[in-house]
Each structure stands twice: as C-alpha cells, then as structure tokens.
From TrEMBL:
It catalyses: tRNA(Gly) + glycine + ATP = glycyl-tRNA(Gly) + AMP + diphosphate. It comes from Algoriphagus formosus. The gene is glyQS. Pfam families: HGTP_anticodon, tRNA-synt_2b. Belongs to the class-II aminoacyl-tRNA synthetase family. This is Glycine--tRNA ligase. One of its GO terms (cellular component) is microvesicle. Its EC number is 6.1.1.14.
Length: 473
C-alpha cells in the first residue's frame, strides 16, 4: 500500500471515521466499521444521492427491498452460473489467489523493470485465455511465466477453478426442509423483481426510475486497498426503465448527469474520467465506468450500464409472470429497456476522504485538514467558548440550542482555542464559532473558516442562515 493511502487509513481510524471490523479480535479481512464521524459522512453522502435521485427527478421513486431473495432470482440474473472469479492455490503456502490478478501484477512488475513488450504480451495472452474461458491455459501461463507465490516463493500451483462470489446460507432448520439462499451480491435484482409492483402502485409511466440504497455481499478474494473492495458493502443503484430504442440516448444522458453530480460535490475534473468498456457483459449494449484517481491509480467508482431487457426478460422466463408494460403513447406492450447507475457508498466515501485529505506545509505552520464540501461534512459547526468562565459556556450553549435541531453541531470547551481549531480541521468541520467576552455585549461571534483559516465577526442571528446556505447542495 502506498504512503498516501496509509496516511489516509490511519487518519480515518484515529479520528473516528473507519475502523477494522471486530478489531479486538485482530479484525476481519475486508470488513470495516464506521465511527462517529464516518457514519455522519456516509449518511450525508447517501442522503445527497437519494435526494438528487428521487426528489429532483419526479419520475424516480425509491424502494427498500430485502437482502434475502428467492433463490431463483440468482438463477435468472445469471449470478449462480457466471458470477465467478478464476482462483488458483499455491500448494506450499496453501494460499489462494485470483489467477488473473497474479498475472496482472507480474505484468506490472515487468513494466516497472522496463520490460514493456514482455508485459504487454503477458496481459494480451491472459485476455485471450479468459475470453476463451481456458482455465487450464491460464494455469499454464502462470507456470510457464514462472510466477511465484508471494508467501512461499514457489511455482507449485494447483489447477485454476472458478469460484462463485456469492455468500450462501440456510433458511429453515437443518432438520426440516432447509434450503440454500444467498446474500444479495447486488441490489439491482430487488428492483427488477419489484418493477411491476412499483410501476402500478406509484402509478409510474415509462420512462421512470427506481432507486435503492442497501447492503450487498461478495466473497472477494483479493480484498485490499482499505474500503475500496469489501466483502460487505453498500450500493446506491438506480434502474431507469425506458422504451426500447431510446436506451442509448438515456444512457448518454445519465452518464452526463452522474459525472456532473461528482463535479458538484467538489471532485476536481482532472481526477475523474470516463472509461468505456471495450468488452461488454452479455446483458449490456453499452457500459462505462466513472473512474477516480485514487492514491493507487484511476479506479472505478460508479458504473453506468445499458442493460437492455435482459433482466426483466429473464425474470419473466423463470417466474412465468409477464413483465410487460403497456405504453399508451405508442399503444404497445413491451418489456422496457434499462439504464442503470450503480455506485458503492463505501467507494464514494473513500473517494471523498482521499479528495478531502489535505496536508499543508509552510515555514510558519503545518496542518492537516479534511476539505469536505460543507453539505457532506460530518460536523457543520463547532461552538467554542474561549474560556470556561464568565458565563461564556452558557452563552455558547444558547447558540448550540439555536442550531442543533437543523445541523450536526459540536460543543467543546476544553483545551486552547488553537488546539480546538486544529481538532475540527482534522474531522473536516467547515465552521468554528468562537464565543468571547464581546459576544456578551453585542451578540456577535467569530467564525473561523476551515479552508482559509480566516476569521470574521458575525451576529448570532445570522448564524443559522449562513450555515444553511453553505451546507446546501
Ligand atoms: P469491480 O470491477 O471493482 O469489482 P464491479 O464492476 O464488479 O467492480 P459492479 O458490479 O458494477 O462493480 O458494482 C457497482 C459498484 O458497486 C462499483 O462501481 C463499486 O462502486 C461498488 N462495488 C462493487 N464491488 C464492491 C466491493 N467489493 N466493495 C465496495 N464497493 C464495491
């Protein structure tokens, strides 16, 4: 892991954003918990996504489907048969690896050593073998290239096998007729199986969308890079149902809308890029990712996919229930086509953290602060009496009362004012409000701004309006 990512991970832990899960037992790989400021930040991101999807678009409504679904769902979606990664085990270390990742990492190493041509040939060979689903060929490539296990250092590899990423569990008691069900690996299917329920009960007309935020589970084998790839994570997905033939226009439109959303959140344009998929999944007729430049390179944050009528058609086949919509405008029954936008809440969280993390070093002072857009900052303002006496705490509490019903506010009276400012910088609070003796006389306070550290004098009566304006999106 590179140095910058390491700094961000330890900052996230030290200042109450993200901890390893069940840390007292040395953690659980690829599972994380969110702390006091982390949960606020994550909730703010989710709320912002939800509001810009459902409230701003009058033709998008939300649902909250269950994590457990009828097992046939995952037959119809293709996950039982093809949601696989090619895995290989080293016989000496007994460690399991993703075969494709082993090859890619070896190619990256060759490239670093200046063996660019060799690296290119290796990745091209891998792509050909994966395309042909030639698993024996992938193993031969690993052995013949002399790729060694990072732990044992040997080339003693097993065969390559497909490994399904879905977690399964049992419903019902084992003695009776227990049956295997899965923890959903994506939230999308909960939307597809409810397509007609929502369309009818919310009285929607095509084109319309259904949005959902919820947990998804994948048994990721290569689990690294902090919360970038987790085994339990949260997705924010929106499936937009359109008339067949209009899908590529909608696809373009959604790609643009989503890119603008990221820009509005303060992510700089040069850190974002679109990446069109060259190789499309069997169900898609267009697909792209929005990528962000993480400390470990440009990586997918959000996917925008034109999924055709694949899912609804497949559910119609498996359920024997018609999944058609009657379109009065063209007087026709059809299965709508779908454009989906799919983003991981945790991955967006990581983007936000990486983007906000700022180390400022100059001759006079150095400081670290989190430059969050005020709309998503976990704490909006800290109310700080400059001393603990002379009635300043009481006055400061009056201000807390004034603001706390609308904003997440912190009150702090311990330590010097400079130390308290520094602490708020570390959790990304945009405004520090200092209450001093003058406040008692004229009802004004000092606002200290996080990014510039500039201070200004403002009337208490103006505070609510000022914060509301700055934290609106
Ligand atoms: P990747 O190629 O990174 O595995 P994917 O193409 O499988 O991702 P999708 O199935 O399209 O991802 O999922 C949509 C979004 O869900 C991704 O853009 C990402 O933000 C998020 N996501 C997917 N898998 C994970 C995971 N294991 N941990 C955290 N977020 C994830």
């Amino acid at each position: 892991e590179n140095a910058q990512l390491k700094d961000i991970i330890s900052h996230a832990k030290e200042y109450g954003f993200v901890y390893p899960s069940s840390e007292i037992y040395d953690g659980l790989q690829a599972v994380y918990d969110y702390g006091a400021y982390g949960v606020e930040l994550k909730n703010n991101l989710k709320r912002l996504w939800w509001e810009t999807m459902t409230r701003v678009h009058e033709n998008i409504v939300g649902i909250d489907a269950a994590i457990f679904m009828h097992p046939t769902t995952w037959k119809a979606s293709g996950h039982v048969d093809s949601f696989n990664d090619p895995m290989i085990d080293n016989k000496d270390s007994k460690k399991r690896y993703r075969a494709d990742v082993l090859v890619e990492e070896h190619a990256a190493k060759l490239e670093n050593e200046g063996k660019v041509e060799e690296a290119k040939q290796l990745t091209a060979a891998l792509a050909r073998l994966l395309e042909a689903e030639d698993l024996a060929g992938v193993r031969d490539l690993i052995v013949n290239t002399g790729i060694t296990c990072p732990i044992s250092g040997t080339t003693n590899w097993t065969d390559v096998r497909q490994f399904n990423l879905m977690f399964s569990t049992q419903v019902g008691s084992v003695a009776e007729d227990a049956s295997t069900i899965y923890l959903r690996p994506e939230t999308a299917q909960g939307i597809f199986v409810n397509f007609l329920n929502v369309q009818k009960t919310a009285r929607m007309k095509v084109p319309f969308g259904i949005a959902q935020i919820g947990k998804a589970f994948r048994n990721e084998i290569v689990a690294r890079q902090f919360i970038f790839r987790m085994r339990e994570f949260e997705q924010m997905e929106m499936q937009f149902f359109v008339r067949p033939g209009t899908e590529l226009d909608w696809y373009k439109q959604w790609a643009e809308t989503r890119m603008n959303w990221h820009l509005a959140l303060g992510t700089p344009a040069e850190k974002l890029r679109k990446h069109d998929h060259e190789k499309l999944a069997h169900y898609a007729n267009a697909a792209m990712d929005i990528e962000y430049e993480f400390p470990f390179g440009f990586k997918e944050v959000e996917g925008i996919h034109s999924r055709t009528d694949f899912d609804l058609k497949s559910h119609q086949e498996f359920s024997k229930k018609k999944q058609q919509y009657f379109d009065p405008e063209v007087n026709q029954n059809y299965i709508p086509y779908v454009i989906e936008t799919s983003i991981g809440a945790d991955r967006l969280f990581l983007l936000t953290l990486c983007n906000a993390y700022t180390e400022e070093k100059s001759e006079e002072k150095s400081r670290t602060y989190l430059k969050f857009h005020p709309a998503i900052a976990p704490v909006k303002a800290a109310i700080l009496p400059i001393t603990k006496k002379d009635g300043l705490p009481e006055k400061a509490q009056e201000i807390v009362e004034l603001l706390k019903y609308d904003f997440n506010i912190i009150y702090e009276e311990a330590a010097s004012i400079g130390k308290r400012y520094a602490r708020q910088d570390l959790i990304g609070t945009p405004f520090c409000i200092a209450v001093d003796h003058q406040t008692l006389e004229d009802n004004t306070v000092t606002i200290r701004h996080r990014d510039t550290t500039e201070q200004e004098r403002v009337a208490i009566s103006e505070l609510h309006g000022r914060i509301a304006e700055a934290t609106s999106f």
